[in-house]
């Protein structure tokens, strides 16, 4: 029996020793499998009184632009300008074959003369019958018929005059004039081309002394731009225009804010006016409106290299007290050289990783470079 006790105790001790060895082996394996700490450089988030420009994609449009269309049908007989030339209001641009319309006018004039002759005849007949009526020498019905014939003749003469006005308008419309001072484009028709009234586009004329620049503003910024509209001043450098790296040398001024927000985009159209000195601007150009930001509050600024992008969203890694980092989404603002403004997501005094960022993940253990 004593030997059995010794045997059972030996078995139990062996099991305990084996379990202890297995546990140590698991702890050693887990330690070997844990990812090593990532070496990073941390930097404290700071704020500054940053002066910068907010940028908005924009398009250049003319203040006044008209498509020239004929108001009569016919064939082009003359083009009286050079493509791309500057034109004056009332200047002759196109001639349309006027033979048919001139003939109609002459016919209308002749018809008016006939109607006027009929009026004279009817007037004389009416006068004659009225003289006879005084002596009871004619039936009353004949007098009434003469008066009615006179009224008909007068109305026909008025209709003939109206017809002259209509056909003379058609004759006038065979000359296409410039509606205002501006620049005309490349002609879309040549002499001999057939054109239809109200259908065929002959050309386009637009103003170019000043040009408008339209851009969309987020509805959150309506108050800011409304204030700028109320306080607008000539020559102010708040609004400038950029094309790539080139800055248009003349500042613009805000003219208007559209009446309503676009429900599709949540933006509202805003219009600036820029002088077009040296004809540097052309309608249809696209560029970037730069609006000087004079915000009185301090801006959070971090190194641009600390920011990572994932599926269109921007993140930084913020150090926690437990030597780990957490990924945090931010709303970036305007770049300032090697730094960038952060609109939302960070506070002054927090520490973020600026080196070794590419090796970090959510919850990564870090060690800082000394």
UniProtKB/TrEMBL annotation:
The keyword Coiled coil applies. One of its GO terms (molecular function) is transmembrane transporter activity. Residues 300-358 form the Multidrug resistance protein MdtA-like C-terminal permuted SH3 domain. InterPro entries: MdtA-like_b-barrel, MdtA-like_BSH, MdtA-like_C, RND_pump_MFP. One of its GO terms (cellular component) is plasma membrane. The keyword Ribonucleoprotein does not apply. It is found in: Cell envelope. Residues 64-204 form the Multidrug resistance protein MdtA-like barrel-sandwich hybrid domain. Keywords: Coiled coil. It comes from the Bacteria. Signal peptide: none annotated. Residues 213-291 form the Multidrug resistance protein MdtA-like beta-barrel domain. Residues 105-163 form a coiled coil. GO terms for biological process: response to antibiotic. Belongs to the membrane fusion protein (MFP) (TC 8.A.1) family. This is Efflux transporter, RND family, MFP subunit. The lineage of its organism: Bacteria, Pseudomonadati, Bacteroidota, Cytophagia, Cytophagales.
């Amino acid at each position: 029996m004593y030997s059995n006790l010794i045997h059972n105790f030996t078995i139990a001790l062996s099991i305990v020793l084996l379990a202890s060895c297995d546990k140590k082996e698991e702890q050693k394996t887990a330690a070997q499998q844990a990812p090593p700490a990532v070496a990073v450089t941390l930097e404290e988030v700071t704020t500054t009184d940053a002066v910068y420009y907010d940028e908005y994609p924009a398009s250049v449009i003319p203040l006044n632009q008209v498509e020239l269309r004929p108001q009569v049908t016919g064939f082009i007989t003359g083009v009286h300008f050079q493509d791309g030339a500057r034109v004056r209001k009332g200047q002759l641009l196109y001639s349309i074959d006027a033979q048919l319309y001139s003939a109609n006018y002459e016919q209308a004039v002749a018809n008016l003369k006939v109607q006027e002759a009929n009026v004279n005849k009817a007037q004389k007949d009416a006068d004659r019958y009225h003289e006879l009526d005084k002596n009871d020498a004619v039936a009353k019905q004949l007098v009434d018929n003469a008066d009615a014939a006179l009224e008909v003749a007068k109305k026909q003469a008025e209709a003939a005059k109206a017809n002259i006005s209509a056909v003379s308008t058609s004759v006038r419309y065979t000359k296409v004039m410039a509606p205002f001072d501006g620049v005309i484009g490349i002609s879309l028709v040549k002499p001999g081309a057939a054109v239809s009234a109200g259908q065929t586009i002959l050309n386009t004329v637009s103003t170019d002394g000043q040009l408008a620049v339209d851009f969309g503003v987020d509805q959150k910024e309506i108050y800011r731009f409304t204030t700028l509209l109320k306080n607008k001043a000539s020559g102010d450098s708040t609004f400038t225009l950029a094309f790539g790296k080139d800055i248009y040398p003349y500042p613009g001024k805000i003219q208007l804010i559209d009446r309503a927000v676009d429900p599709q985009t949540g933006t509202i159209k805003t219009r600036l006016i820029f002088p077009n000195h040296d004809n540097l601007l052309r309608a249809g150009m696209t560029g970037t409106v730069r609006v000087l930001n004079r915000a009185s509050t301090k801006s959070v600024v971090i190194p641009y290299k600390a920011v990572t992008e994932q599926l269109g969203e921007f993140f930084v890694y913020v150090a926690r007290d437990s030597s780990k980092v957490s990924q945090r989404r931010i709303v970036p603002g305007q770049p300032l050289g090697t730094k960038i403004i952060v609109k939302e997501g960070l506070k002054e005094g927090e520490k973020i990783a600026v080196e070794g960022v590419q090796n970090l993940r959510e919850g990564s253990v870090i060690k800082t470079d000394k």
